[in-house]
Backbone:
């Protein structure tokens, strides 16, 4: 098995209107590694995460995830690859018309798991983020930190190989931010490859992990 | 594999039914609109079907008179009968052989014709030919011409008579009515697909967040499409039941009017009811169009709005 789970080769992404998000970026991430993507707003962190998840496609270069070159992979296959990735979105993307349990089960519904496994895994995921007593709560009734934990539970419930977190601590106070980062450490110990983007590098420096720094769409240093 | 497939379909079905049950008033206008379109489609079908039955029972199709040669023997008549029997049974209703002796006897016994045919009756030899009277079951001039040509080519056939201009007029009229009915059915099927297409498109816009999030976390097109297909199929099924009631009410009303007209003009035109088998067949065809409409709507919305 290849040691590298993610490999960027001279990747550029230009959005419509000739807006360049990232330019000629190359890096690789090993299986089971925990990496931080750091940089100011608009540096290209979210674009990199979206390219890994196959939500966006590279304008040039190759994005290889778990052996699949996403630049040449068809949409249907990219959707399938996404089922093996957990994504924590910057804007949460919580569904407010359903309770906590139903929000978390969505990933397993998509992967067509049987009902008994869904119940077991959702409960386990909610326990891991400390939301086991909020199963029937509506998302509106949760605090900012709890909503973020709900997103983490939804992202890990299908036991992905890669976990991508886009600014998971952005709207949280320092205490809550540290609690969330502790959760990621637990998942990392379980062997999951984790990439976390953040603009506040002061929190990240305490963790002693690799930091990929970005500035204006290019790698720094 | 089969259990997994069953589970996914059951989940989609439950999701679609609960959507309908939770807010029936939101969907009633859609269902009524679709049921009216289906009722019109079914009415056209019922009218076409009843007209075909009436046409078969009441319209007199052309008769072919085959005059045999004077020298024709029983063997020639048998050959002719075999040819007719061999021909398409849909065109030939029945036939009757009238021998020259039978013809003469009929002439002798008809007091009105006696005076006109006195020369024939006075003759020592019977001058009448053997005749085969063929009653047809079709007004298609093409088929009737084929049959006439085939019979004319047989040995011992002296003359073949048929009034094709009358048949041609009936044929043209029936074809015109059939074309109008087919055109209207096509128009209403297109309307049906467009209404469902728009209904699904709006439903997708209402569930935009759910679909968007599902797509982002790896939902396939079929995962998104399945509950929408069940949602549309359920609505079409309900609309079909309403349309069935509407069509039967329409038939009862129209048949009441026809009964009065029939007693006045001595005719027997009545619309036949839509049978349950026909209803099921119609539902199956409409479900195929429904899934097609859902597929088009999902493809269009994905192409134009949602994230990859």
Residues:
């Amino acid at each position: 098995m290849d040691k590298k789970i993610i490999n960027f080769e001279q990747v550029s992404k230009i959005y419509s209107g000739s807006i360049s998000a990232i330019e000629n970026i190359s890096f690789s991430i090993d299986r089971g590694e925990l990496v931080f993507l750091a940089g100011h707003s608009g540096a290209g962190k979210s674009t990199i995460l979206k390219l890994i998840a196959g939500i966006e496609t590279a304008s040039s270069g190759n994005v290889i995830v778990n052996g699949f070159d996403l630049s040449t992979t068809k949409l249907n296959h990219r959707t399938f690859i996404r089922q093996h990735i957990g994504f924590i979105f910057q804007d949460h993307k919580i569904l407010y018309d359903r309770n906590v349990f139903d929000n978390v089960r969505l990933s397993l519904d998509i992967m067509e798991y049987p009902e008994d496994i869904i119940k077991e895994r959702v409960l386990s995921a909610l326990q891991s983020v400390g939301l086991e007593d909020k199963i029937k709560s509506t998302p509106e009734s949760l605090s900012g930190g709890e909503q973020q934990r709900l997103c983490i539970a939804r992202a890990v419930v299908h036991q992905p190989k890669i976990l991508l977190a886009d600014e998971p601590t952005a709207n949280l106070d320092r205490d809550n931010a540290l609690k969330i980062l502790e959760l990621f450490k637990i998942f990392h110990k379980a062997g999951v490859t984790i990439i976390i983007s953040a603009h506040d590098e002061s929190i990240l420096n305490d963790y002693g992990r690799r930091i990929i720094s970005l500035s204006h769409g290019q790698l720094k240093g | 594999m089969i259990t997994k497939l069953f589970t996914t379909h059951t989940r989609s079905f439950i999701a679609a039914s609960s959507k309908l049950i939770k807010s029936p008033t939101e969907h009633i206008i859609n269902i009524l609109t679709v049921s009216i379109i289906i009722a019109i489609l079914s009415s056209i079908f019922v009218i076409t079907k009843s007209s075909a039955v009436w046409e078969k029972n009441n319209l007199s199709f052309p008769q072919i008179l085959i005059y045999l040669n004077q020298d024709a023997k029983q063997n020639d008549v048998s050959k002719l009968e075999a040819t007719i029997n061999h021909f398409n049974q849909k065109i030939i209703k029945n036939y009757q052989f009238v021998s020259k002796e039978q013809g003469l006897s009929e002439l002798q016994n008809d007091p009105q014709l006696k005076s006109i045919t006195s020369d024939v009756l006075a003759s020592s030899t019977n001058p009448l030919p053997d005749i085969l009277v063929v009653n047809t079951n079709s007004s298609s001039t093409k088929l009737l011409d084929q049959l006439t040509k085939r019979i004319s080519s047989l040995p011992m056939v002296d003359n073949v008579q048929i009034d094709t201009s009358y048949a041609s007029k009936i044929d043209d009229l029936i074809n015109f009515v059939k074309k109008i009915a087919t055109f209207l059915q096509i128009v209403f099927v297109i309307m049906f697909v467009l209404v469902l297409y728009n209904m699904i498109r709006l439903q997708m816009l209402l569930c935009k967040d759910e679909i968007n999030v599902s797509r982002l976390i790896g939902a396939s097109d079929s995962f998104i499409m399945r509950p929408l297909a069940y949602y549309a199929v359920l609505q079409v099924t309900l609309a079909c039941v309403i349309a069935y009631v509407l069509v039967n009410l329409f038939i009862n009303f129209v048949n009441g009017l026809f009964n009065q007209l029939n007693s006045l003009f001595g005719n027997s035109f009545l619309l036949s009811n839509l049978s349950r088998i026909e209803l099921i067949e119609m539902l199956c065809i409409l479900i195929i169009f429904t899934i097609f409409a859902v597929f088009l709507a999902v493809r269009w919305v994905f192409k134009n709005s949602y994230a990859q």
